[in-house]
Structures are given as C-alpha cells and as structure tokens.
Amino acid sequence: MAQFLVSLIGGFGLGGTYALVALGIVLAFRATGTFNFAHGEFMLFPAFLIGAWQTSHSASLAVSVIVGLAIVGAIGAAFYLLVLQRATGLPAFMGVIASFGLAAVLDGVMLIIFGSPEYAIHFSGLPTGVVHLAGARFSATSLALTGFTLVLAAIVAGGLRFTAVGRRIRAAGQDPILASQGGINVRRIYMGSWALAAVLAGVAGIAYGSTNIVDPSLTSVALAAFPAILIGGLDSIEGAVVGGLIVGIFQAFVATYLNSELIDVLTYTMMLVVMLAYPQGLFGTRRVVRV
Amino acid sequence: MTNPCAAGLDEVFDRPPDPSGPLLTLRGVSVSFGGVAALSGVSLEIGPRDLVAIVGPNGAGKSTTLNAICQLVRSSGDITLKGQPVNGRPAWQVAAQGVGRSFQDPPLIDHYTVLENILCGAHLRLGYRMTDQVFRRRHVRRREATMARRAEILLDFVGLAGRRLDEAGSLPYGARKLVDIARAMVAGPQILLLDEPSSGLDHDERGALQGMLCTLRDEQRVAILVVEHHMDLVRAAATQVAAMQAGEVLMTGTPVEVLDSERFRSAVVGHAGHGDPEADGAAAFAVREDR
C-alpha cells in the first residue's frame, strides 16, 4: 500500500510538471500552429538564473523568480513578433524549424552566461521535513510543489475556459479571421499566448528544479511531455492537463513496479495505443473532412 | 411590411449611422498577390440605407473587395469609413468601427453551439478588462447577458431559434451561412459585408433572406454591401449594383441599368440576354455556373 501511495503521489508530482509544460506547448500550438522545440530551453533559463542568483546574491529569491520569468516571457513574445508573425501564411513547418533554431541559440547563450553548472534551488518559504501518510514517507517540499503545480495547471486551464480572456485566446486559436471579425486583437493574443507559454515552462522548470538538480538535462523534461500532449489532444487545453497527469502517474508506476529503463518505451507505446483508438487524442478536436 | 421576426432589432442595431454623407468610400483601391492584380483602381461609395450588390464572374475581385475593406488583405488607394481612413489598420479595429462581415465559406467552430458561434462576434461590444473578471463580476455578467439577448433576437430574425443549442457542425450549409450572418450582426454593425449569403439556400430561404436584407436596410438603416450570384435577389433587394470583371468595376447603376445592359451581359455572362425574367434566370444560372 505504501509503495502504491508513493508511486501515485510521485506520479502526481511529475504529472503536474508535465501538465504545465504541455499547457504551454498547446497554447503556443493553438496560437500559431507551431510545435515549439525550444520549450525545454524556456524551462531551463529561469531555473539557471535562479540557481546562479542563489549562489552569488543575498537578495530575495522572489526577485530572481520574477526576473527569470519576465525574461523568458519576453523571449517567447519576441519569438512570435520577430519570427512567427513574419512567417504567417508560410508552411507551419518553417515555424517548427525556427523553434529548433531558437533552442540552439538559447543553448548557446546559456552556455556563455552560465557555463555548464549544476544548481540546487532552495526556496526558504517551502515546508521542510517528512510527512507520514498511510505508512509511507513523503518530502514535505515535494508535496507542496506537487500541490502548487496541480493547482496552477487547474487555474490556467480553468481561466482559459471560463474567463473572457481565455475565450479570446481559444477563439483566436480556432480561427484567426473569425476572431478578428469578432473584435479580437489576434496578434496581441498570439503574442500573449507565446509569453504565457514560456512563463508556464519557466514555472515548470523552477518547480522541477526545486526537487531535482538543475543542469542542461532539464530540457529533456519538455521532450518527455510530448506523449502527454498527443495523448490529451494537441489542441486541447484540458487534454494537456489530463495527458500530463496520465503520463506522470504511468511513468511513476512503471518505475516502481517494472523497470525505470522501460519508462520511455512504455510511455510511447501507450501513446501509440491511444492514437490507434483516438487519433486526435482523448480531448483533441476531431476534424471531419468530406471528400 | 414589417418582418414579424424583426422584433427587438432596435436593441441589436443600437448605433444607427449618421444619415448624412457616405458610410464607406473606396477610391482607387488596388490589391495584388505576388504581382497578379486582384483589384485595380476600384471605387465605390455606400451610404446608409444603401444595399449595393457586387456581381461578376469568379475571379472578378468581388470577395477581395470585401477583404480589402476589412483589411484582411493589404491594399493601396483610399478606403474611408465614416470619413476615417482604414488603410493599414488591424482587421479587428475595422470590425470594431462598425463593419460586420460574413464569409463565403462560414468560419464556424463546429463543436460550439449555434448560440456560442454567434456570440463569437460579441467581443466587439463586451469591452471589459481582465481585472473586471475579478473585481466587477456583476458588470461582466450584465454585459454578457445583454449580448446573449441580442444573439437570441438575431436567431429569431434568421429563423434558427429552434436550433440555438445544436452544434454548428450538424447544420446544413445554408443554415451555416445564416449563423455566420447572425454572428456578423450581433455587435450591431452600421455596415454589413455579406459574401454570397444566398449560396446553399433554397428558393424559400432565399426569399426569407431577401426580406431580412430589406428589413435591415429600411428599418435599421444598415448599409449592406453584398457579393451575390442570384440575380433575382439582386433585382429585388439592391439599390445599386456594381458589376466587376478582372479586378475592375465594369459599371455601376441601378439593378435594371446594370443587369439589363448589353455591356454587362456580354462581358460578364458571355452572351446578350433578352431582358425578360426567363432570360434573367438563364443569366443567373450562367453566372452561377461560371463559378
């Protein structure tokens, strides 16, 4: 029972991170149809900045979090304004390649600024110690961060569904011409979507880095979230959250009861099986094409 | 005769245009796509209570004219709306100035209901800020209720009140066109741009559409610019006709002056007609066939 509970709660922790990452990728995809391969770098940059800040400054950690998220949000917005907006009307594949380019540039910039360090992020305000639950022991920090990522993912998904701003973001993602004729400033919405996507990636990176070592391999967490996106549905906000949780919990159970080396194989196998039954993902839009 | 379904339209069209002077003026408007001239020096003038029909064969530049007015394509020349230039302005700002636009292929969101699709056009008038969602919830609810009531009035007006909760994807093509037109009207525009509104409608539905257009023109003083292939509708409803061919305005005048002219028949239809209803039907058919 204790092992099961550890797997389940550990899965929720990983799933919360995946959900935030997937939400960001889906937001950017809905805005411009671009699958963003620089999302891992968006995760890493603020985590590196906070790690470096922590080792060299005595100032408040909150300042470094705000600065890190503001910078990465600005990078996301600038990437849309300077690259993707100009590529409007061109094949979507160009935007994907451009995101590879952005990833390479950000990797190079981070190497120049930070080198290849390893950081451990410590938030002094987080609870510490061990929590006993049904015979299992949990880190209070991990539990707090798990709760934070899950609540944040739910707030973002709920905000996108139930607020006017969310409706505008979803409408602009569905059909930019329809949205523009409804009075929605589509460019601003797209720019905001990319900024929000980058900030969500940054938050996910910081949360993940708070319980793990921050090093360049953190970018691989974004790649690990890709199956979550396809399982949930590439264009579904709710699907991103559900897909993230499914993959996170699934991986935790595979690691506990089978073999951690099988995580990638079985996760992608699960993704393929889901796609066999639901090609559009569990919550994705099924497009009917009459021929 | 007053349309019985037109009750409440005063609430929707609550910003009647200034009756003096033209609402929309085009002077020497040109559009080119990669060196190919889609529009060459188009000039038109539309005032309140005008219903101007643009007729012509496929590729004549009819829809491009509407796109240029909405700023969905870049154009040269002068386009002024209520005396204010619109060239270079974002499409959503043009829409917010009181231009409603429906499309040849209705851009509906298939998994939204008919009512929700119509409300996609409501953002033009909702106009509340993100903070209002939190601090002025009653204000937000009141505005959204107002727009929902306007949408219901329009559903009744276009004859789709019984299908308000149907998914848009389940509607036949003609009904989709009517939803799109209602969406274009929900913000109470002063000028309506309709792209082939009668395509997909049967004879009775076309008659109902004609009644709607006349009601909007006569009772609500809405100016209407319509791209249309059904000459019987043009004869019955239009106050002015602009015949286009190869991106240029061939001639303008009353429906009789244009549609019965040998110049129009030989240039647009391809043969001179006889000026009788039967020939008109043949001409209309020929124009439709030309598409």
Structural write-up:
The complex is a heterodimer of chains A (291) and B (291). Helix content of chain A is 73%, strand content 3%. The mean pLDDT of chain A is 88. Chain A has helices spanning 2-32, 39-56, 61-84, 92-114, 140-162, 164-174, 176-181, 186-211, 219-224, 226-232, 237-257, 263-277; strands at residues 130-133, 136-139. Chain A starts with a helix and ends in a 14-residue tail after the last helix. By secondary structure, chain A is mostly helical. Chain A has a single domain (2-277), classed as ABC transporter involved in vitamin B12 uptake, BtuC (Orthogonal Bundle), CATH 1.10.3470. Chain A has a two-stranded antiparallel ribbon. Chain A is globular, with a radius of gyration of 19 Å. Chain B is of the alpha/beta class and 291 residues long. Chain B contains 13 helices and 10 strands. Chain B has a 6-stranded mixed beta sheet, sandwiched between helices. A 4-stranded antiparallel beta sheet of chain B has the order 2-1-4-5, with helices on one face. In chain B, β9 (240-245) and β10 (248-253) form a beta hairpin. The chains are: A mainly alpha (291), B alpha/beta (291).
Attribute tags:
heterodimer; A: 291 residues; mainly alpha; ABC transporter involved in vitamin B12 uptake, BtuC; 12 helices; 3% strand; B: 291 residues; alpha/beta; Rossmann fold; six-stranded mixed β-sheet; four-stranded antiparallel β-sheet; 13 helices; 10 strands; 41% helix; globular; disordered C terminus
List the helices and strands and how they pair.
The complex is a heterodimer of chains A (291) and B (291).
Chain A: H1 2-32, H2 39-56, H3 61-84, H4 92-114, E1 130-133, E2 136-139, H5 140-162, H6 164-174, H7 176-181, H8 186-211, H9 219-224, H10 226-232, H11 237-257, H12 263-277
Antiparallel strand pairs in A: 1-2
Helix pairs in contact in A: 1-5, 1-6, 1-8, 1-11, 2-3, 2-4, 2-8, 3-8, 5-6, 5-8, 6-8, 10-11, 10-12, 11-12
Chain B: H1 9-12, E1 24-33, E2 36-46, E3 51-55, H2 62-70, E4 76-81, E5 84-85, H3 91-96, E6 99-101, H4 114-119, H5 123-126, H6 132-135, H7 137-157, H8 173-185, E7 191-195, H9 203-220, E8 223-227, H10 231-237, E9 240-245, E10 248-253, H11 255-259, H12 262-269, H13 277-290
Parallel strand pairs in B: 3-8, 3-9, 6-7, 7-8
Antiparallel strand pairs in B: 1-2, 1-4, 4-5, 9-10
